Amino acid sequence: MRRLPSLNALRAFESGARFLSFTRAARELSVTQTAISHQVRQLEDDLGVKLFERRPRELALTPAGSTLYPVLAEALDRIAETVTRIRSLPESRPLSVSLTPTFGSRWLAQRLGRFWREHPDIDLRLHHSVQLADLLREDVDIAVRWGRGDWAGLVAERLMRAQATPLCAPALCTGPKPIRSPSDLKHHTLIHQKDYQEWSEWLAAAGVADVNGQRGPVIDDANAIIQSAMEGHGVMIGIPEVLSDEIASGELVAPFEIRPDPAFAYYLVYPPGALNRPQTRAFRDFLISEAGSR
User: Fold this and answer.
1) Which of 5, 52, 75, 251 is the most buried (most CB within 10 A)?
2) Residues 236-264: pLDDT tens digits?
3) Do domains 95-162+264-291 and 165-248 have the same CATH topology?
4) How far, in Å, are 71, 131, 197 from residue 22 at the CA level?
5) Are 141 and 280 in contact (CB under 8 A)?
6) Rounded Cα gap, residues 152 and 175, in angstroms
7) Where do the structural domains in the chain lie, given as residue ranges?
8) Residue 137: CA atoms inside 13 Å, Cβ hemisphere, count?
């Protein structure tokens, strides 16, 4: 039986060692720099050795890190090559799609019926995760992700605008401490998904200095976050285009018009050449058609 460390920790180390930068590794793996640092420390604790020398303004590999890095990089490259060969096998294999949980459950789920009617021969495998799948190394054909569209080595097509903004139940805008300006958020619970990054970034971009973006519950289930917000338990960061039904029904409202970062959007992300497979192109064309104007 193989006793291996966490795969996420190994990927974090390999990316950090390749760039000698946790910041660039975080960008590549679509997680926070804190998450990369935590995963590397978890790996170091598991192995009982230091893998990086953490110097001011730079990283350097220790002898142990220099021993592990080339072996791990080669192993991941071999996995990627094998996955590429598998992707070239007969077209009967399932189409693997990686999605963010909110996009998959709130926007896509309502539209999949048409795709299945038009393509009953395509066997979909939908994987929901807040982390960006490694499309160059994992068995994933295409992904939908939120960001700036700058994922290295991948093709990114803009699918729809997706500027995050606070969303809450209407009652929070008319209650004892109504939400009328961003500063009013200090009187309400902030609900977080995965970590505190989204709220902290939104408050900073909106120029709100008197609200602590690192307080409130962290929930790893997008549907639970949305339900909590609709029931008036707190304020979430959400994307109105994805939660249009909840907004149209009046279950959620956007108390502000502030959308600080217009660069963010939902993107279709896939490796170069992925659209040569008819199933992948069919799903890509379906999403673009459903999204309308990009």
Assistant:
1) 52
2) 988 888 888 899 999 999 998 766 566 67
3) yes
4) 20, 16, 16
5) yes
6) 46
7) 7-87, 95-162+264-291, 165-248
8) 18
174 burial (CB, 10 Å; 0-12 / 13-18 / 19+) is exposed
Report the percentage of the chain scoring pLDDT > 70. Answer: 91
Q: pTM of this prediction?
A: 0.54
Amino acid of residue 213: G
For residue 226, give the 3-state DSSP assignment.
Answer: helix
Residue 252 is predicted with a pLDDT of 95
Output the CA torsion sign for 130, 134, 138, 143: positive
The amino acid at 188: H
Which strand (E) or helix (H) includes residue 45?
helix 33-47
Q: What is the DSSP letter of 233?
A: S
Q: Residues 228, 234: contact at Cβ < 8 Å? A: yes
Question: Phi then psi for 254, rounded to 5 degrees?
Answer: -105, 105
95 closest CA partner among 292, 272, 294, 270? 270
- Residues in Cβ contact with 24 at an 8 Å cutoff, skipping those fewer than 6 apart: 15
Give the domain 165-248 fold: D-Maltodextrin-Binding Protein; domain 2 (3.40.190)
pLDDT higher than 70, residue 41: yes
95-162+264-291: CATH number: 3.40.190.10
- The mean per-residue pLDDT over the stretch 36-43 comes to 93
Indicate the SS3 state at residue 114: helix
